[in-house]
Design a protein that fits this description.
disordered C terminus, four-stranded antiparallel sheet, two-stranded antiparallel ribbon, 2 domains, Transcriptional regulator, alpha+beta, elongated, WH-like_DNA-bd_sf, Muramoyl-pentapeptide Carboxypeptidase, domain 2
Amino acid sequence: MTDTPSGGSGSGRGGRRGDVLAALRSADEPLSILDLADRLELHPNTVRFHLDALVGAHQAERVTVPSAGRGRPAQMFRAHTGMDPAGPRNYRLLADILVAQLATESDPAGRALSAGRDWGRRLAESGEAPDSATRAIDALVLTLDEMGFEPDTDTGADRERILLRHCPFLEMTAARTAIVCPIHLGLMQGLLDPRHAPVTVDSLEPFVEPDLCVAHLSAGPGRDPNR
């Protein structure tokens, strides 16, 4: 056995790691590292390397079998029961379904705005209330950056804006701008509202340039932006 612990080599879907997982799934009982090494004609260290990765990905699990004599109980492995947690995902389909459903409402933009606000409030519940407009904007920009909007502030004598250089839902905005953009506006408003921030997001201009959307800010109702 001259194999090396490489995740990308070997035959079959998923390489040697896929072979190890397939062997676990086809077995009627848990297998040891030596069992797998013998079945797959791999070095035990290679099997151990892939088993550690599979356990870490929750695709396999360790099973402790009582030893027949003295010494440590034997450590065996079996495939994770249930659906593969590392299997393919299609969140785009789910998003399309939900957005299409919103589009059938009597006031789709209003419902989208409300949904975005609700989600923004949930995200902000655990946050600390900022004591100034600057800190509120900084917190908003940080959250938007984590979401993939690539935001930047643009402050002037007569304006306070957040420039958004990327839309993480770009494919959907092509056909559903009237739904997706109000969700984003509501999200930003919701992120600020429960924190009692002295600033709010008035409006969102989508695609003022091919690579730019602009969120316009102002002092919240009855609030001093310098507090």
